[in-house]
Specification:
The chain has 26 helices and 14 strands. By secondary structure, the protein is an alpha+beta fold. The radius of gyration is 41 Å and the shape is globular.
């Protein structure tokens, strides 16, 4: 056994050879003696050796002994070259045991701080120091402007360590040493000899991030570039060697391990470069890369995260959302000295999710998971995946309002490939379980039994930042168990019409489903457009539709038809609870109150249709929403020349769904809804529900009368208002005057011009109706009625009428022109018409030049549409 004070023998391969000699060995004692002499020489007083001062880093764990030994060698070389012989001190070992001598002679903290040369180790010239010992605050320093924030050390990366008493130190890396008595860091050497990870991020050619990495686990398998001394440029990257498992590249590279250096930090949810990935991890979502942020941003993120996470946790489960609650962009305010948080839209689909759990938690699903046509019972939905297109998909158009206001998506998302795949059925959103809805219905007055979503997929529910729930549905996305004899596809011509009309109706102020996007493929779809035996090849397309709910009258009819009363009650209570807040779901009369609300809202909806000359075309019970919104745009049409018998659908030979019969069809559909509810009602409730249905005509006419009085600018109540409206419609019918432009031009013409019957060619619709011999009589009655408007003027009257009489509607010839260009992959007219119809009450110069407010072109007279789509 070695005696105390004797040097320990060096055994190759032993622990001492790997970790350095023991601190208790004589070699360490001699080194301490020499360092003491060096300090004494530096202070100008050789003096007696005395007790050794505690050298920073000398008593650190043995794992850093290799670095200390290298530093000692540099000290010895410098001392031997500069120190006088007497300052070198004795070279013999101290006979006193190290532990006993340290315990007996070690000065207290105050003595060590006050002793000359003992506050910190006297540093050698900067040129001989290790680059990681340089002062980061010195001029010309290439250290990051924002040092890494305190936190867990990343393996393999040493952090700077400050002198004793300066606060918590990051283990493994020393702060710059200061010579005794100076109080300032020692002069620095040229930065070319320093490690590349200490270089200035703003210097040309720097390979270091502008914002240094935040503390966290080191990315395995990535080695930082080394810089040869004196070159100032990084050496070529060297693949990691398989020295140990910690240095080996993992077999499967993670997304954040794609490269060894990144040009800039990842895009965050805050404009002040705060990443939101910490929030995602707190909510159980995977982060794509370790967060990188400056310390000041960390504090900001902590403040924002508390509020954002709290909002996220209070969000009801079962709905999809953007995984980050609307954090925001930051706008610095010099006056306030803080960041104002404003809502920001998602720029990718990485953390944007949908969910069907809200429906599936209450409503049953078909236990058969296979996707084939069959009779389905005792369920509301069937699981069915969309069928992707085989050919390339083209984006025809998107609705900016729907993306931003409803789906919380930035418009730039529409240019991403994953978005195109999502809206075409080629990709399933995170959390989504595509469903097909089971329903029945009466078509053209006859029970059609099971119908269902034959070519539509409900891909999930999204809850936006306003707390609104929206159901997303793809139309034309493939077969489902309810496809019957269809192929599950929709063609481009019908999809363009639905996309444009959905948005046009919304901007006209009519309750409707919305269209978020339209895509078209080169897949062949065969259709007999007019059921004449002439089958032609067309292109498949998909529309992404959104609505608060896609339940319809047929959803309840099929349950009552097959006697599934428990399921009928469950579905009805679910609809009431989710979409009818005015109805108390605990009230025994809730089903009657629900029916009363549907009757009232349906009367309002059809009256709104009539006020803009809209004919739905297929008012079957499976196309009538229980929320009284316009859905399922097929062979619709906006009436041009006024005609109560206008039928847009050439498949409707009996003219059942002509525009003048829509109110009666609405009452027929409501009666079928009442028949479906009857099994859940007692006799008294049935009687009350029947009385409610009997009041439907009065509700409709009251709304119709109010809307048309506003279109004529009439205020208050007049005895002859109904006759005045009917008289004008009669003249329009007899002369074939344009419905939309007649009311608009009455809004633009002055009373004096009407009185003189001075109608110029610019009022071409009024000029058509003025050919009738009774037109002067109607004008005199109309001007007399306008005089009864209290506190009104002609300019106010015209301003009021222009606000309710649209200038542009989606005429059939406009849609047909856009479809013909889209077939050649020219989507410009689709997008232009979409922009025009977003402001239907404002004059648009380009739209005027295109003739959207002019008489229909001659070729448009032969246009027809049908149910084939």
């Amino acid at each position: 056994m070695s005696q105390p004070g004797a040097p320990r023998a060096h055994v190759p391969g032993s622990h001492s050879s790997r970790r350095g000699l023991s601190l208790r060995g004589d070699l360490c004692a001699r080194r301490r003696r020499r360092l003491t002499c060096a300090r004494a020489w530096a202070s100008g007083s050789p003096g007696p050796p005395g007790p050794p001062a505690r050298v920073a880093g000398l008593h650190e764990p043995p794992r850093r002994h290799r670095h200390q030994r290298a530093a000692m060698v540099r000290v010895r070389k410098w001392r031997r070259a500069a120190a006088p012989p007497l300052a070198r001190g004795p070279a013999h070992p101290d006979p006193e045991p190290e532990a006993a001598r340290r315990k007996r002679t070690r000065p207290g903290p105050a003595a060590r701080r006050s002793a000359p040369g003992s506050s910190i180790f006297a540093v050698p010239p900067p040129s001989t120091r290790s680059p990681r010992h340089r002062d980061p605050s010195a001029p010309g320093s290439a250290v990051h402007a924002f040092p890494p924030a305190p936190g867990p050390q990343r393996p393999g990366f040493r952090r700077p360590r400050g002198p004793p008493g300066t606060g918590p130190q990051r283990p493994g890396v020393h702060r710059p040493r200061v010579p005794p008595g100076t109080g300032t860091p020692a002069p620095r050497g040229p930065p070319s000899t320093r490690s590349p990870r200490h270089r200035d991020p703003s210097a040309p050619g720097s390979a270091v991030h502008a914002f240094p990495p935040a503390p966290g686990p080191q990315r395995p398998g990535v080695r930082r570039p080394r810089v040869p001394p004196g070159t100032g440029t990084p050496a070529p990257w060297v693949p990691p060697s398989p020295r140990s498992p910690r240095h080996r590249t993992p077999a499967r590279t993670q997304p954040w391990q794609a490269s060894a250096s990144v040009a800039r930090p990842p895009r965050g949810r805050l404009r002040c470069r705060v990443s939101g990935e910490g929030l995602l991890q707190s909510r159980g979502m995977p982060a794509r890369r370790p967060p990188r942020r400056p310390p000041a941003a960390c504090l900001l993120l902590a403040v924002v995260a508390c509020h954002a996470v709290a909002r996220g946790l209070m969000r009801p489960r079962g709905e999809g959302s953007a995984s980050l609650p609307p954090l925001s962009s930051n706008k610095s305010s010099p006056d306030q000295g803080s960041c104002e948080i404003e809502a920001q839209l998602a720029r990718s689909l990485d953390f944007w999710t949908l969910s069907s759990a809200h429906l599936l938690a209450v409503l049953p699903v078909d236990p058969v998971k296979e996707n084939y046509v069959r009779k389905v019972k005792n369920c509301i939905f069937s699981i069915a995946l969309p069928t992707p297109f085989k050919s390339r998909v083209h984006l025809v158009a998107v609705s900016k309002e729907v993306l931003e206001d409803i789906l919380d998506l930035d418009l730039s998302v529409s240019k991403r490939e994953d978005f195109i795949q999502l809206i075409s059925g080629g990709k399933i959103a995170f959390g989504s379980l595509p469903l097909a809805h089971r329903y029945g219905g009466h078509q053209f007055g006859t029970w059609a039994d099971q119908l269902g979503d034959g070519r539509a997929h409900l891909i999930g529910i999204y809850m936006n930042r306003q707390g609104e729930k929206w159901e997303l549905q793809l139309k034309g996305s493939g077969k489902t168990p309810y496809s019957r004899n269809g192929d599950g596809r929709a063609v481009l011509r019908s999809s363009v019409r639905e996309f444009l009309c959905s948005e046009a109706m919304h901007h006209l102020g009519i309750p409707t489903s919305r269209a978020a996007s339209l895509v078209v493929s080169d897949d062949e779809v065969w259709r007999d457009q007019f059921y004449s035996g002439n089958v032609t090849k067309e292109r498949g397309a998909v529309v992404l539709r959104v609505a608060k709910s896609w339940f319809r009258i047929g959803s309840l009819e099929i349950l009552a038809h097959y006697g599934e009363l428990d399921l009928l009650r469950t579905l009805l209570d679910f609809i009431i609870r989710e979409h009818f807040p005015s109805v108390d779901v605990r009230d025994p009369n809730r089903h009657v109150d629900f029916f009363s609300t549907v009757v009232f809202e349906t009367a309002q909806l059809i009256a709104l249709w009539m006020s803009v000359g809209f004919a739905h075309g297929v008012c079957n019970t499976d196309n009538f929403s229980v929320l009284s919104i316009t859905i399922d745009y097929g062979p619709f049409g906006f009436m041009e020349a006024y005609n109560p018998d206008f039928v847009p659908n050439t498949s409707d030979d009996e003219k059942r769904y002509k525009i003048g019969n829509q109110a009666n069809v609405g009452m027929f559909n409501l009666n079928k809804l009442l028949q479906a509810l009857n099994p859940l009602l007692d006799p008294r409730q049935k009687q009350r529900a029947a009385q409610i249905l009997d009041g439907y005509p009065n509700l409709y006419y009251a709304r119709f009368r109010k809307l048309f009085k506003a279109k004529l600018g009439l205020l208050g109540e007049g005895e002859g208002d109904d006759e005045l409206i009917a008289f004008l419609l009669h003249l329009m019918e007899k002369t074939g005057a344009d419905f939309t432009m007649t009311f608009l031009q009455l809004s633009e013409i002055t009373e004096s011009q009407l009185l003189k019957l001075d109608i110029s060619q610019q009022f071409w619709a009024l000029k058509t109706i003025s050919k009738h011999e009774l037109f002067p009589t109607w004008v005199s009655q109309y001007l007399l009625r306008l005089k009864s408007n209290m506190n009104d003027s002609d300019s106010e009257r015209r301003k009021r009428m222009i606000a309710v009489n649209p200038r542009y509607v989606l005429r059939n010839w406009m849609a047909e022109s856009a479809v013909r260009k889209a077939e050649r992959n020219d989507f410009s007219e689709v997008r232009f018409i979409q922009q025009v119809l977003q402001h239907p009450f404002q004059k648009h110069p380009v739209a005027e030049k295109a003739g959207y407010a002019a008489p229909a072109p001659s070729w448009a007279k032969d246009l027809r549409v049908s149910c084939s789509s």
